[in-house]
Amino acid sequence: MYSGWANENAPSGAKCLELLEVTDQRYIDAMLPDDEDGAEGGSPATYKVEVYTGDVKYAGTDANVYITLYGVEGDSGFQKLKAGKTKNLFERDQIDTFEVMTDHDLGPLHKIRVKTDGTGLGAGWFLGHVLVTPQSLPSSPSAGGGSPNDEIESLYFGCNQWFDVTEGDGLLDRELKPGKKPRPGG
Known about the structure:
Helix content: under 10%
CATH superfamily of one domain: PLAT/LH2 domain
CATH topology of one domain: Lipoxygenase-1
Distance between the termini: 75 Å
Structural class: mainly beta
Largest sheet: 5 strands, antiparallel
Number of helices: 1
């Protein structure tokens, strides 16, 4: 029970709230939910992300590109797609491959979010599509012989739109849902 010592000018009967600085990590861990995004912890997971820049005039960009993967068990958070094997990323009719690492398996993916910061010379970008393939997921007790990726298929996220304030609809940020990959020539 408080007697108004925190504020001598508080009206009679006013309630006070005591704020404590908590520095004991065991107490903090006990008070927080297991995981805010719905995941129950678990092992790290890796996803191969293949970004296909379209084959249209001025399709490439020097802007920074970010991606978020969304699954039924949470999301990856925004991750900058940084140079790997290719030094000049996101050029016309080019495929750039990245690894996105998460602290747990996201479960089946239901969307991705791709955005650019619109900076640099030639900031506009025409994204063709993105392929996402789980690479290293926590092993399951029912896993048999062979590679854990034997039955894992890539998810196709079609786009075929500009990320540019002066082209198309002017958006720099898009959510993409998985779909069927078009057949060659059709």
